[in-house]
Amino acid sequence: MRYFQSLAAIVLTLLVLWVPLSAQAASSSVIGRAADDSELVGKDFSGQSLAGAEFSNANLEKANFSEADLQGAVFSGSTMTNTNLHGANFTYGIAYLVDFTGADLSDAVLIEAIMLRSRFDNTNITGADFTDAVLDKVQVQKLCARANGINSKTGVDTRESLGCR
User: Fold this and answer.
1) How far apart are CA 97 and CA 51, in angstroms?
2) 41-66 b/e (C-beta count within 10 Å ≥ 16 → b)
3) Are 116 and 136 in contact (CB under 8 A)?
């Protein structure tokens, strides 16, 4: 069953990325296209409701998304190095080509998130819940090498949510 869910998520991602959207569909809140990209570096989004927000090619280095509601949010081609996502809810979110190097994803909820072609080098994932998330196999192997803890909101073990052996 998990195989079919993962396959469906990959097909959906490919459709979203390669099928052009109408102008009306693209009118949702696009936050990441600031005139001066440096406006987003270190920005405090903590505790905010950003469900469905879109960040495209944004420099979100050292931004604070702790405890933010990011359900269904989209991060595409963005830099999120050293970003704080502690306790954030990224359920059903998409992070395509995102650099999470040094980010804090501890206690984050990433259920059914699609995080393809993203990097997680030196990322804190203690207590993160990746249940049914879609990640590149190489990244999952790297994450499993340091996965530990239990998510305080869902009660799910990080290693189990990643499918670590």
Assistant:
1) 20
2) eebebbeeebbebbbeebbbbbbbbb
3) yes
* 77 CB burial (10 A radius; 0-12, 13-18, 19+): middle
User: Which residues, at least 6 apart from 108, have a Cβ–Cβ distance to it below 8 Å?
Assistant: 85, 86, 87, 88, 89, 90, 125, 128, 129
Q: pLDDT digit string (tens) for 7-55?
A: 555 544 544 444 444 333 333 445 554 445 568 999 999 999 999 999 9
Q: Catalogue the long-range contacts made by 31-37 (C-beta closer than 8 Å, 24 or more residues apart).
A: 31/55, 31/58, 32/56, 32/57, 32/58, 32/60, 32/75, 32/78, 33/57, 33/58, 34/58
Tens digit of each residue's pLDDT (9 = 90 or more) over 52-73: 999 999 999 999 999 999 999 9
